Amino acid sequence: MENITLKHILSGHVQHFPDKTAIIFSDPKLSATERKLTYREFNSRCCRLANGLLNMGFRKGDHIAMLSMNSSQYAELYWGFPKAGLVMVPINFRFVADEVAYIVNHSDAKAIIFEEQYLDLINSTRSQFDKVRSDGYIIIGDKAPQGMINYEKLLAKSADTEPQIEVEEMDPSILIYTSGTTARPKGVLKTEGAVLWLALQFLYHCGWSRDTATILATPHYHLGGTFPTHAAIYAGGTLIIQREFDSLNWLELVAKYRVSRFWIVPTMLNLIVNLPEAVRSKYDVSCVGDIMTSGAPLHAETWDRALKAFPNSKIHNLYASTEHGGATILYQREKDEHNLPSECIGLPALGANVKIGNNQGNELPRGETGEIWVKVPSNPIEYYKNPEATEEGFKDGWVSVGDLGRQDENGYYYIVDRKKDMIISGGENISPREIEEVIYRHPKVLEAVVVGVADAKWGEVVKAVVVLRSGEKASQDEIISFCRGKIAGYKIPKSVDFVDHLPKTPTGKILKRNIRESYWAAHEGRVY
Known about the structure:
By secondary structure, the chain is an alpha/beta fold. Among the domains are: 1-243, Rossmann fold (3-Layer(aba) Sandwich), CATH 3.40.50; 423-520, 2-Layer Sandwich (GMP Synthetase, Chain A, domain 3). It contains 17 helices and 27 strands. The strands form 6 sheets. Strands 12, 13, 14, 15, 16, 17, 18, 20, 21 and 22 form a 10-stranded mixed beta sheet that branches. Strand 26, helix 16 and strand 27 form a beta-alpha-beta unit. The chain is globular. The relative contact order is 0.09.
């Protein structure tokens, strides 16, 4: 029996409803006209992309990076690469040159597709790329500098027939990077089957179908951009892609295209529901039904405001990670019926096995606190080229990302804390150590620790706590300015506190948890 993969699903949709709208791309800053692609047009472009890359000599299993803001072309890569068995490597478009070079090199990317606005960054960095071929620079935009290939011209000269490449369930499909507790991001390598399962899981819990119009506002490089793009097309629905999130434009698109279901980061949802009532009332959002959230704390106030702003909606809060995808889910009905607190993350999601265990994955008695371990078909193969992290976080098919939790007597799971010190700001995972290493380079700094602190807009924001060298003086602005250009903007501390000393263990280890807890004492706690 032939494998049923992403390429078969898309080509099947073309047979059944070729003229149905698959993609709507909206960017009011670039054009007043929204770009629309039918399933026939979208599939044709995906085939042309795959054939164009194969004609260039790229082969099944090759890694190709993408550096872009949200775009219809991004969706073409997500559905075009599987037609050729190529492995997608999304890059955070906020990264500075050093960060981009690290991802490109660590991923062993042989080519990079990028938007025109990043041309200067690529030109300043390409000498550092280890494996990108000399002809492996494909640019999206009007320019076609010498030695680079224009994306549209590549598609125009390529056939739109289905590539004769057999892709199987266990073939690598995407290498997506997530910040860890180490200074550099970790590459999470997922198979074609893992991607398919995550889409299926999402459809099951959100009720997406061929009649569903959904909207994507989160960055395409993020897991939260990946699985809605796969799920919407998998279902045969219509995906509205917002170039970058803007709460007012988001409302306009939801009302205009009668969006019925969507996934969103709680930070974005909070911005939408906190728009003035006089503004929100201009838009008919009675079409909205199921809302899925994950990726940041969903505070009780935001949950309540969302139910009032979208009167026909139901909220489903998913506990997920880049590594395992969906693990548990808390439905609106369960929250209402059982009066569950905001730190409850619900029951296991479709296909997911969840347990509370020790650091070796051995299950603990119900009620005890331990690591949350997940076994689900969307689990990754490994942390790419990182055997130490793989050995630590992968145990006999189970995956742990270091979150601490417990299970109550009724089987519901709860987040207690994070074992490690990850900061989640607006759905973005931020490694404190990476920022600390930058601050430690400042000549006036003796010690520094970075923690996440509560923020009404972003859930958490970055704070640095600094001890200066004897006799030195520095300002908050000085430390913040020092970080600019060395790390992405969203990682830069929003505030800096100066202290005489940091709390430590007898062995000299900084008690980061004590520092963090001192800032969260007046808040409801970190909920994920």
